[in-house]
Amino acid sequence: MKRILVVLIVIGLTNFASSAEKQLVRLDGSTISSSQLTDKITQLTNAAQVQGLTVTVFNNGLPVYSEAFGFADLPNKKPLKTTTEMYGASLSKAVFAVLVMKLADRGIIDLDKPLQSYLKEPLWKSQSDGGNAWHKNLGDLRQAPRYRKITARMCLSHTTGLPNWRWFEPDHKLRIHFEPGERYSYSAEGMVLLQIVLEKLTGKSVEQLMRENIFAPYGMAMSSYTWQPRFERDYALGHGVDGSTFPRDKDNAARAPSTLETTTQDYVRFMTAILDGDGTSKMALEEMFSPQIRIRTKTQFGPGAGEITDRDDDIQLSYGLGWGLFHTKYGWAAFKEGHHDEGFQNFSMIYPETGTGVLLMSNSNNAEGIFDYLLSLTIAEHDFPMHWEGFIPYDQKPLK
Q1: What pTM was estimated for this model as a whole?
Q2: N- to C-terminal Cα separation, the chain
């Protein structure tokens, strides 16, 4: 019954603007009214030329504000809504992590058992079945025997040693850059590896596993890891910095770390369920939001990803299982971003202990320039390491 009530609350968010004035409570105890927040966000999006954005705020584990700003398609003046289909990008990884934890709860997968041990044939024999399923081709791992040490925990905490994507390697080949489990290095390929094993182990596609374990239980009817005909009614185009649009990629194969199509309303349902502990054991949630590996790199990506620093030691910057973590006086915060160069920039943050959170979903390449200000406005969050993430405020970017 509690889940049904939560879903009804979220559905009602589309009519939020017409509801009574609400006071949103921030981490430091300060408040901001829904109308004040809407005005300030409008000012920010205009100043930074963010073509489209949705903002959702959570108090005590429930959504208390959710609004859309700007356009799904600026050239055609099509408004963005919280029900508009958007590309989730790496928000996919947080959803996949919850799926894995549910399967671990049921004993289907052991987080610390080497993935290869679940299969009779070597993983490197996995081959693409054609189309866009290139991610299933693991033949390169034949020359990287350390892959046999990789576990589900390593895949979810980005400690496999695999690259982010094979396409970033000079020769576009898979390789393992360090001893699995040794240190943090963001890797979508690591989650793909786990996806392939789960599909072989269960005999079900990742899309089917998601429908059965996440989408259906949480009422996420407008979410999928592949493009669906029902999305054609209302979907967002990504916008470049100048407002020009990119065509949507509609022929992706389902990839656990990256291909989630969703709406703000659906992802709010997901975050609400996680904050409520819905369908996942308390032990699994605690493990997911517990530090697995400390992060001491200067940045997450680029040249700084190879530089070691103690700059973020005071917030204990770490990675959990599918989520980044840092510690503040309000407790542990978990975050997950989602970035695609063709106009989609997303960010989510929750404080599991207090139920405070925020979801930012944008179809604009200018959005990350206001994320720092939005975190401050919505929940009074000031400790997140923007420098590590590479989110440079729009009004602090160096002139070209």
Answers
A1: 0.94
A2: 56
